[in-house]
Amino acid sequence: MAENISYVRDTLLEQSTAPRGAAHSTGWAQRNLFATPKDSVLTVVASVIIIWVLFHLINWTLIQAVWTGPNRSVCTTIVQGGIQPDGWSGACWAYVGDKFQQFMIGSYPRDQLWRPYLVAAVFVALLVPFLIPSVPRKGLNALLLLVALPIFSFYLLLGGVFGLRYVETSLWGGLMVTLIISFVGIVVSLPVGILLALGRRSNMPVLRMFSIAFIELIRGVPLITVLFLASVLLPLFMEPGNTIDKFLRALVGVSIFASAYMAEVIRGGLQAIPKGQYEGADSLGLSYVQKMTFVIMPQAIKLVIPGIVNTFIGMFKDTSLVSIISMYDLLGIVKASFGDANWASPVTPMTGLIFAGSVFWLFCFGMSRYSAFMERHLDTGHRH
What we know:
By secondary structure, the protein is an all-alpha fold. The chain has helices at residues 25-32, 37-63, 93-105, 114-131, 138-158, 175-200, 205-219, 223-232, 246-272, 275-283, 288-303, 305-318, 330-336, 348-378.
């Protein structure tokens, strides 16, 4: 008996045309912004608010802003468009220009500026090839960037050796302090966080309990408390007459705090690795160190790149808290400059805070975009 297959089509359907407007931006807007009357009303209201805010923001920060001048007197009138009712201009960028060097390096001696500039140049020269995957000799690059550069920068910036003038850390400030603290925190927190995460998953009770106690204790208190403890308690472990530099205390406090959070991020990646990966590594006769180094940890870190970068971004912003122990990062030194009578005006504080916020945003946005790039570069698990 022949099988009836009359219901099976023996010709292809003709290609259908795209829905009207779907191939253009109007189609996207219709689906996402004007799909219903309620969506249309909300879109119109939100657009009006956004346009109003952007107009006033651009007008204040750019159009009515003052860009050059010797003191606050240049910000009392508007060069373009007359005088405002309150007698003050828009953003006073002349103030930022006058204080720019202070915002970058603090009170570092002006006759020694070549030292932080040299450190910045070496940092950029080592960081750029390190971030480009196609550049060879990553091991040597990492050694120079993560080990040699901190040592070189410490002696060059601090001085007191090789005939260099000693510059105490209380004169350091601005973006230089923000970058140093965040860079050291990143370099220290990642390996320490990995060790703490492995310790928390260890079968050795003493090591596991120590790791759990450390992580939960640090994560249970705010960074301000950790900074105070580092500033007050660390000197107690020194012999009488000896002390620990205040800047070093801040580095230790931030590094400890970031390491505890990093440990939990890494632990999440380790738990996401299938059990078969551990068993496969064991079946190859790999030792614990080899198994973690070559099989487990590379996969775990790749899975938690967003969490790692999120921790780095949070730490970069949290460096502003070091001002409570009299260390002035970018935000701290901007706020301190508000007291300068030469630039005291109603528009000065807002201008300085917008500048500081913009710098923080640029660095954080850059880290976020590089994180997305690395995720795409390392996402090889489902490619065909």
